[in-house]
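pipeline: protein-struct stage 2 | run 1193 | Glycosyltransferase RgtA/B/C/D-like domain-containing protein
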Amino acid sequence: MTRATEPPAPPPRTDLVAAARIGGATLLLLAGSLALFWPGVATYDGIAQFGQALAGQFEDWHPPIMARLWQVLHGLFGGEAGPMLALQMTLYWTGFGLLAATLARLGRRHAAVSVLGVSVLPLFLGWQSVVLKDTQMLGAMLAAAGIIAWWRLRGVRLPVSALLAVGVLLAYATLVRSNAVFATVPLVVILFGPARWWARALLTLGGVVAVLGLSQAINHGVLGAGASGVERTEAFYDLSAIAAQDPAHPVGLTPGEARTVVARNCVKPFFWDPLGTPDRCGPTLERLHGLSAGPLYRLLAEAIVRHPLAYAGHRLAHLNSTERWIVPAGWPSAIPPGVTEANPVGLRSPGPAVPRWQMLARWNAESPLGWPIAWLTLALAALVVAVRRPQAPLRDFALALLASAIVLEASFSVLSIASDLRYHLWPMAATALATIVLWSEARWSRQAVLGTGVALALVILPGGVARLRLPAPPTSYAAMLR
């Protein structure tokens, strides 16, 4: 028999042993995470969803798929937030563990250890202890990516069972976070779609539009969620911001409404919330609440055409805020909470060690490792490296992660109403993993390393100066509203 007809040799035993060790370490990290953070931290959003799960009445302001799932798990296991924490932690560690074990099996042990290093960053793990739609999305997407990596990085086609698991996880991620479609669709298109870039772009655009429409049908028709009007908040925010810059000639608002918005300081780059609160500008926009989404967004389109600079200035100011670039130190809504908010539904706080862990997360958030803009810069630099390489399993997987991260971040330039760091958890984690995978495939050229370093410096230095020089922001939600 010639060598050409011999069956492929199995992976070396040392690789399998290394993968098994990574798997064992991941199981220990999962167990340790559950022990440390049990029964999970709940904030306002999680408390509201648990209340819906208990009452059996759902609305679409929060994802009904999560409340429905919580209802089922609570009925089976009790434990308040515990079952949801166990779910999102298991998904989180499954994703990191499978990718790390795959890299170890391929002989890339340093990359495998680096993946686990990312998984224990205090900011990522600290947020994963909070039972939220964002952390449920992160867990589901990481688990899907890990399953894909286990097969694709070894050049093996996914079996049907793995494809079904990935489909369920990505569907859940899409439904559990309203803007997750900008992450899930590019990931699927790059990994399973056509090779040509123009075809990928068209398929991504069409897929996003189709999934957005389908999601609404599922939320209301299948999951039985009542309409809350959440889809109109973006129009309220943008219309009010445009009108505030030219109160004499607003679109959508009357001049009197626009002047009131300005007088009460209700337009803030940080978030839309003052426009929805009863004691601020909520009553001022009451007339707009009578309009459905279609007429509202037609008014917004007219406002953008008539006042393009006002719109661009507003969106850039908000993008800077949510990307946490030129902002003061301690910019709010970055640090994962260490205790559960007071609530009437019986959700408890974890033990006293959790606030100490979240103190580490605070330091992490204040460093460039906690700035979405720094991760976006790295993602763009890594994308340049990836597209210059020939097609290969490692490169293609990294490219899919980067496309998912960058498209989601890009969506915040036009579709975002708040600056919470948790919205960026998946793009940050995906960028870290893609960079590790690309580096493990082949060292970056000196030119690529230098270019990435310069790009990061141009982002980090101004951001650092801003944090040293700008006045401290308000330290409470109520103060941010003023």
